[in-house]
Amino acid sequence: MRAQFVLSEIGVGLRRNLTMTFAVIVSVALSLALFGGSLLMSDQVTQMKGYWYDKVNVSIFLCNKSDAQNDPNCAKGAVTEDQKKAILADLHKMPVVEKVAYESQDEAYKHYKEQFGDSPLAGSLTPDQMQESYRIKLKNPEQYKVIASAFNGRDGVQSVQDQKGILDNLFGLLNLMNRAALGVMLLMLVVALLLIVNTVRVSAFSRRRETGIMRLVGASGFYIQAPFIMEAAVAGLIGGGLACVFLVVGRYFTVDHGMALSAKLTLINFVGWDAVITKLPLILAASVLMPALAAFFALRKYLKV
Predict the structure, then answer these.
(1) Is 140 left (phi over 0), alpha (psi -120 to 50) or beta?
(2) Handedness of CA 62, 66, 68, 73 (dihedral sign)
(3) DSSP string, 38-84
(4) Helix (H, G, I), strand (E, B) or coil at 98
(5) pLDDT digit string (tens) for 62-105?
């Protein structure tokens, strides 16, 4: 097969269907950019889980005098020294516990003032209204229920709270956003495939005379189909290149500059450039293979000469 002939046919086909080729490029670019973005979002959620779950604490809040009057869990009164020692001893015996830290009422009041000092409620609180607590670091954050079942309802314990539940809500929202991006990506992918198939059909129809002559002189099916397949692959590759540009520019302006989320949200460890770079070859490969395969199967049905 002469490469010059194939390349010339590709150029002719792209020029003849310029509008549809442009639509294919845009739809492929958007769908693959969303695909790459969803992969990065998945990496981001996984990285955040690994970072934050490692810092998750389970808190056992102890009853104070105010709780004894208002909270049914503290109906037997404020926690006693013996109860605190018994709770601490039992915590140290549990194999799921890695570390235990005690927070006094004064320390809880100080931390509250540091975090919510501007709140109108802060001025009316006193240290004796705050709760003593044990902050427990687990070897495995998933084992929170072991602590909850052991200490919920125990004398002197007001409640057992797990920070993992708050994080699960956040990660649930991020996963929902990721699934929404995947849904839009799949819709754009279907649109791109339909455009590719239609473009190939139009191109094959407009050149049916040439392909008929080629068949009569003994040209093989692949020799006839190759220009059409490569047209789709070239258009897809251009779209994939644009998708890579969108991904790199998006990461640059949202995280590093422009919005500068890395500087504003210092508690979030954003995925690095290595994660972005590893996605680019996958996007480029998909941008070539997807249109080429779509064109190949479309030609089997529509290129009858």
Answers:
(1) beta
(2) negative
(3) HHHHHHHHHHHHHHHHTT-EEEEEEP-HHHHHH-GGGTT-SPPHHHH
(4) strand
(5) 988 887 777 888 888 888 889 999 999 999 889 888 888 888 88
SS3 117: coil
- Token readout for 14 is 């792209």
Name which of 39-48, 159-168, 204-213 the model is least confident about.
204-213
Residue 231: both structure tokens together: 């047209």
List, for residues 101-156, the tens digit of each pLDDT value: 888 888 888 877 776 666 666 566 778 778 889 988 888 777 777 888 888 888 88
Amino acid letter, 268 = I
Helix then strand count (H, E) for the chain reads 11, 4
CA distance 211 to 296: 15
Q: What is the DSSP string of 119-183?
A: SGGGGG--GGGSPPEEEEEESSGGGHHHHHHHHTT-TTEEEEEEHHHHHHHHHHHHHHHHHHHHH
One-letter amino acid for residue 168 of the chain: D
pTM for this prediction: 0.64
